[in-house]
Amino acid sequence: MKKSKKFAIWGNTEKSKFWDTLPGILDWAKNHELTPYLTTRILKQFKQTDFPVIESADDFNDMDFILTLGGDGTILSAARAVAHRNIPILGIHLGDLGFMANVTLSDLYNRLDQVIEGKYIISDHMVLDAEMSANGRTINSQVLNEVVVNNGKTHRMVTCMLEADNRFIGKYKADGIIVSTPTGSTAYSLSAGGPIVEPSVKSIIITPICPHSLTSRPLVVPDSSEIKITFPIDPAEDIGVTLDGQVFHNFNYDAVITVRKANYVIKFIDFVDCSYYTTLRNKMGWGKRGNDD
Predict the structure, then answer these.
(1) Distances (CA, A) of 253 to 177, 235, 246
(2) How far apart are the first and last CA of the chain?
(3) Domain count for the chain
(4) For the chain, which residues score pLDDT lower than 70?
(5) Are residues 152 and 253 in the same domain?
(6) Structural contact between residues 224 and 217, judged by C-beta atoms closer than 8 angstroms
(7) Helix (H, G, I), strand (E, B) or coil at 50
(8) Interval 86-112: pLDDT, tens
(9) Which residues contact 111 (CB under 8 A, 6 or more apart)?
């Protein structure tokens, strides 16, 4: 692996831990002759201004990796910015639960040293493309976690018709529908009763939210599937679509939402001694009973 020379820092500037950690990272970079690039959002609040800045998404093309400091939301926003540019992300966890960032502050510099020594692996994470069409306009967006469809601004149920590859799946009456990647299976989908799917499994997960039927259950389909969602009944309110919990759109009930695998993946920096199942146990209490230590 080539020696790292440049890296970008992407952080949750609302967390005090970010500002506590940033100076140490900058000193580490200087000591190892690496050039850190900061986002404009960081520089607006940072007293030092003599650092190169990420002014546009294309600037990521010059980076060897992106260091994110925050929680899962920080990683999701970084992944959206990186998109198809094939730049690996190293997530540093600053919050309470974060599942996607497996590096903590306690081993931050050990892991950074491993990265510049080439002692890491790259894991590919599937991305979904959501095509949303209504009223003669079409919006395309990509998600690392999930697409959530619900009844817009109200808490009423929505009636959805689902197809996979032009084959009818079923009619769902529920608070909404979640279409997620394996990476997103431990996010909203899990809270709604969906399965945990190891990120390397090539699949798409469809999870109804509070379905009005005991027979409506989560469904796992191949990642080659194209999922189409339509609405046969006017819900009297807009249809809401939420992308990775961070981007929102509203449409009329005649919208057609198509979800398929995107033509690129998001790359994460990982380490041979990190295990997905260890993360499940440590961060989600996997396999523990209520009275276990």
Answers:
(1) 15, 7, 22
(2) 41
(3) 2
(4) 1-3, 96-98, 235-236, 288-293
(5) yes
(6) no
(7) coil
(8) 999 999 998 766 678 878 899 999 999
(9) 90, 103, 271
Helices (H), 32-96: 40-45, 72-82
pTM for the model stands at 0.92
The 8-class DSSP code of residue 58 comes to: G
Q: Does 168 share its domain with 89?
A: no
From 27, 62, 72, 113, the catalytic residue = 72
What token pair was written down for 174? 């529920």
Q: What is the domain range of residue 162? A: 127-264
The pLDDT of residue 96 is 64
Residue 78 buriedness (CB in 10 A; 0-12 / 13-18 / 19+): buried
Active site residue 58: no
The b/e string for 117-148 (b: 16+ C-beta within 10 A; e otherwise) is eeebeebebbbbbbebebeeeeeebbbbbbbb
